[in-house]
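Hey, can you fold this one?
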Amino acid sequence: MKNAGIIAEYDPFHAGHAWQIAEARRQGAETVTVCMSGDVTQRGGAALLPPSVRAAAALGCGADLVLCLPNPYACLSAEGFAAAGAAILSALPALDTLVFGAETPDTAPLIRTAGALRSEAFSAALARSLAGGAPFAAARAAAAEEVCPGAGAVLAGPNNNLGVEYCKALAAQNSHLSPRALPRRGAAHGEAEPGAGGFASASSLRTLWRKGGAAALEGYVPDAALALYKEAEASGADLDEKAWGVALLSRLRGMDAAAIARTRGTAEGLEHLLENAVRAAADLPGLYDSMKSKRYAHARLRRYVLAAALGYTGELPALPPYVHVLAANKRGLALLQGAKKPAGASLARLARENEACRAAAAAHATAADLAALCRRAPGPMGGCYTEKPLLIR
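Sure. Predicted structure:
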C-alpha cells in the first residue's frame, strides 16, 4: 500500500478517524485520500457541520486530499454509497488501496461474502427469503449464509456490512484498488455513549454537541478538529435540527402524488405511505413514526423521505461523474494527475464539463442550499458553487 483511499462521512471527524488515517500510514501509506459525504449523510439526514469544516478537520489531522461524495450519492443505501465512493476513488490512477474499518479486520472473509452477494445463487436465495416475509436485512443475511456459510455472521456487523459493499463495488467496477480492512478502534458504530480511551462514535458525539456544544467533544476529537468545531459553532455553522425538519416537511407538503411517485427508490407503495404520512405529520420524527413498517428499515424510510424532499429521481447519473476537491496539500494535489473523470476544486467549472456533471452538480446544490438555510446562522444559495477549497501548498 502506497496511496490509500478512505470513504467516510466524518460527521464529525473524531479520534477513531484520526487513528484510522494513522494506521493506514503505519501499514505503508505515503498519502491518504478521503472521499467524504457532502451536506447530507447515508442515514438520511443533514450533517452536523458543513463539508468545508469537516474537510479542514480531516486535512489537519492527517489526510492529504479530501474529495466530496456528492449529496445525491451520499444519502444512498450502503450499496449505493459504497459504489459511489469507490467510483470516485477509482478515478485516481495513483491510488492503490481502499482501507476501511471493520469488526472483522480480515479482508478475506469480506471479499468472499462480497463474491457471494454478486452471485445468481444469492439473488435466488434472497427472493425466496423476501417471499417469506422477512425484513430485507434479515432476508439478505439468511440468503448470504445459504450461499456462503459464515457470510451471515460477517454481515451482522454494521462496519463489516459496509466493508463487504466496498469489496463488492470494487469488483463490479473492475477497480484497480485493493480492499484492506482495518480494525475498528473504540466505540461501536452508532453506540449511544462515548467509549473508553477517548474514542466515541459519531452519533454519540452529535448527542454530546446537542447537550453541550462543541466544548462537550473535548477528549474525543483531535485538538486541531476541536478548534475548528468551536470556530464553526461561534459562527453559527452547526445544524439547526428543528429548522431542518420544518424545511423538509415544507418541501414535502408542496409535492403532489405524481412528484412523490417519481422519487428515486419508489417501490411497493412507498409513495403512498409517504403521501399519507405527510398529511398529518407535524415534525420529522412523527413522519418517520407514521411510516414505520416491518418491511422497511428506519434508515431506508429516512433516505426515501430525503430523496423525495430534494427531488432526487432515478434519472440522476448512476455514479458520480466528476471528482470535486474540497481540501488538499501538495502531495494530495499531485494525486489528481491522470484522473479518469473531470477533476478540480471548482464545482461551477465541473458542472460545465457535460450534461451528467451538470445534473449531478445541480442535485448536489439542492441539498447544499437546503442545509445552508438550516444552519443556526443561515447561509445564501449557491455556496457550493463559489466555496473556495482549502489548499495547503
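Residues 105 and 393 are 35 Å apart (CA to CA). Let me know if you want another pass with a different chain boundary.
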